[in-house]
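Hi D.,

Good news: the full-assembly prediction came through. Inputs first.
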Amino acid sequence: QVLLQESGPGLVKPSETLSLTCAVSGDSVGSSPYYWAWIRQSPGKGLEWIGTLYYSATIYYSPSLKSRLIISVDMSTNELSLRLSSVTATDSAIYYCARRASRLREASFDYWGRGVLVTVSS
Amino acid sequence: QSALTQPRSVSGSPGQSVTISCTGTSSDVGAYNYVSWYQQHPGKAPKLIIYDVDKRPSGVPNRFSGSESGNTASLTISALQAEDEADYYCCSYAGDVNFDVFGTGTKVTVL
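Then the structure:
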C-alpha cells in the first residue's frame, strides 16, 4: 500500500515562497520506476498539473509555472518537495502529490495524497 | 496548453447510463492512447477509475467504461447509482513540454 501525505503552511503571504513536502511510504520516490507529480485544484475549479519528477534527475514543469517552480526529492526522508516563488492569490489551491504510471506516455495517477489547502493572503 | 474540454454537467436517473466526453487535440488525446479518468467526491482526493483509455483498476465497478475515437475520449457510467454523484476528470499525456493535461471536469448528478 502506497501512502502519500502532503504538509506545509496553510497560509502564505503574497510575493513569498510556498514550500510543501509530500511524505511517501510504501514506495521509494528517488528509485522507483514510477513518476511522482504535484497537482493543484483552485477552490471550486478543476485539476491542474504542476510538475513531475522521475528518478530524482528528470523533472517536468508546467510551462505556466516553470519560472517560479522547483520540484525536488529528498531520498534520505523519501519526501517529494515543491517550492513556488512569488505567489499571488491565484496560487491559492489544494495541492496534491500523486504517483504517476511508470510509462512516460501513460498519464494516470494511481495513488494520491489527501491534499493540503494553501491560501495566499496578507 | 489548454485543458481538455468536458461538459460542465450531465445527469441521469438511477439505473440509467450517462456518457461524459473529453475532447482534446491531435497533440494529446489523439496522439496517445493513454487517457485516464478520475472520480472526485466533495472534499476528497481524486480516485483513478479508468486508465489506458478503457482499463479499470482493481476494485472499480464494471459499470464504469472508457473509450476513445480520434481526439475525443469518453467515460460511460452504466446503471447509475446515487454514489456515482461526483465530479469526473479526464487526463492525457501531451508531450514533453506540456506533459500531462486534465479535462475541465464534469459534475454528474443522479436525479
